[in-house]
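Lecture 7 notes: from sequence to structure.

We start with a single chain of 211 residues. Read the sequence below before looking at the structure.
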Amino acid sequence: MSGTLVLVRHGQSDWNLKNLFTGWKDPELTELGVQEATAGGQALAETGIKFDIAFTSELKRAQETCRIVLEKVGQSGLETIRDLALNERDYGDLSGLNKDDARAKWGEEQVHIWRRSYDIPPPGGESLRDTGARVWPYYLTEILPRVLKGQTVLVAAHGNSLRSLVMVLDRLSKEEILKLNLATGVPMVYKLNADSTVASKQVLGDMSGAH
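Now the structure, written as tokens:
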């Protein structure tokens, strides 16, 4: 058996709370988001896990979640690499808009297609496939080799960048990944085999908070 990969979606952000398309915009965590990240970190601490390195995006909500998780496992100051390859999907012209206002402007069906299709991007933005096209190479070159060396690696990122990874790790189809919602602040612990396939997966915490 090889190393361990832990994926954590950031806690609730201010714009999640306000029902806004966020993408590459950079709001802070809400009080609830801090609590979610804290709970995720505590759940990891209870397993006794220790990380060798952490990765996060260029956006504050993921960085803060990463910081809180590391603090809870007693590893504040661990080397953390930030890269925009792990950023949330870019929602383009939808970024900053209230989801209800977007539906009023473009229609319920069109907005639903942008949000839930695999390969149709919103105007000026990325589809889930586009997001995967930057996440997967980064994972293969920067993250996976460390796990295969036996390291324990934390990735604190976003709903769609992590869905891209989960799609590959869990071998999900395009249809299956579109139905998957990752709970905020809930760690997913993967043990990988030497051939990079998944030996085991454990989700720590209550999934009822998924949104």
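DSSP finds eight helices and six strands in the chain. Keep this in mind for problem set 3.
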